[in-house]
Amino acid sequence: MRRLxxxxxxxxxxxxxxxxxxxxxxxxxxxxxxxxGSATQLIVDRKPFLILGGELxxxxxxxxEYMQPVWPRLAAMHLxxxxxxVAWETIEPEEGKFDFRCLDGLLAGARENHxxxxxxxxxxxxxxxxxxxxxxxxxNTERFPRVQTSDGRDTERLSPFSAVVRDxxxxxxxxxxxxxxxxxxxxxxxxxxxxxxEVGVIPEARDYSAVADAAFAAAVPTTLMKFLEAHxxxxxxxxxxxxxxxxxxRAGTWQEVFGKTSLTDDLFMAWQYATYIDRIAAAGKAEYxxxxxxxxxxxxxxxxxxxxxxxxxxxxxxxxxxxxxxxxDFLSPDIYFNDFAHxxxxxxxxxxxxxxxxxxxxxxxxxxALYAFGRxxxxxxSAFGIDDQGNVPLDLVGITNPSERVDGSALSSMYAELxxxxxAILAKQVTDGVAAGLIExxxxxxxxxxxxxxxxxxxxxGSAAGASGRIGVMFLxxxxxxxxxxxxxxxxxxxxxxxxGPPIVGVESIDEELFENGTxxxxxxxxxxxNSQGQALRLYGTDVxxxxxxxxxxxxxx
Length: 558
Known about the structure:
The protein is of the alpha/beta class.
């Protein structure tokens, strides 16, 4: 234990010295985030990288043997990255005795299948609970105190107010990052790290332990108050309204500054979790400075703090988290609700690049991925429970040629297309040359997307005309009047313009293109009935499964 502690301390000192002594740009060779034009992108081995990901079920990665047959399936689904938990109890089953054999086996499995990893640190919390901590932590409630309810009962949640909990968590996380640096520092299999998972408290809005009560009655920390003043113009509207409706005070207790509401309880817990996680992330980055983030479980309609994970990094508390956890690079939403555009847009901010670690799979996931990459310049998209999904070839309606049998998963097929288009997408994110539209829910019947001199109106068509399925369409501008279009779902796209010049937009040509022999090849020139006599582009639900995109050229006339 003493030897490991010395090694960890030595690593914390040696890593920055190594970066300076060996080569001036060693840090730039590590996976890192970089502002590229109007987008922030993940740079891997000095090149922009688009994460086409899938997250494993929570306990799948606890066994190298379990994962052996899973890795090839994931690679066959056209993922390039697996989002994978590493639990505290797995690496430190006895206090001070670390075991990284499982982690090393996971690294080997990923590499053998040419997959990258995003590591999820299941430390003190996973989905508010402390279920993945070691037994020596879980069973010693005196040394490692719990969040308490208002009637004085302990819960199955370690206290974010405990320095003992925090320091033990930070020590384990630092050991993990130290080992990753040694085992992967020159391979870059691991791209990023999530610190904890969906933190917060339920069933009440805050911790009612004695130490929590004292902190709640004390003044709001000066660091947060200074952040409010400095960023007032850009604060989340709900957060700013809470502060201003209570008088926009520059000092005071939590209730004096934000009001006597349950939202104040939420903001109070957000500060505790943010400052706790900042210490964990800082300890890890001292060992190996990969990009790090925290994720949020979102709010169901009309839920109050305590009914959801109160204190998590939600849109209304993102500013609290940015003030309290500067060691984190961004905050992420886990999106399972239908209002994807709203939730994803809430996390796509100039100070917060978008990465979605958990989301729906299937056709909904495929459409959402198009929107995230094309509209919000996301650095990555990941569907949950990916190890439950295989790449089982299924016959689709109208496909009779055995060579056209395709993966039955819409997301897998979409990842195949996005993987081929990734260099173009990444380049166009930088220059605002990519756009996307999303139709979701029964109430939405159309979406409008502006790009270059044109506007595209997307509506449901064919089998989707009277349905409520999700439709996503991405536009990649390849010339002033030329675009590549990739879609998910039955839709029709009509083009118009609001820019000066001839007002009517016509379709000069539409070429159907497929990826063959390592390149995109024109298969058919679509005209007449196939483009509504030069008026529209028709997309089909089977396009992605068939590997089909469209090159559209437009012109304008009176």
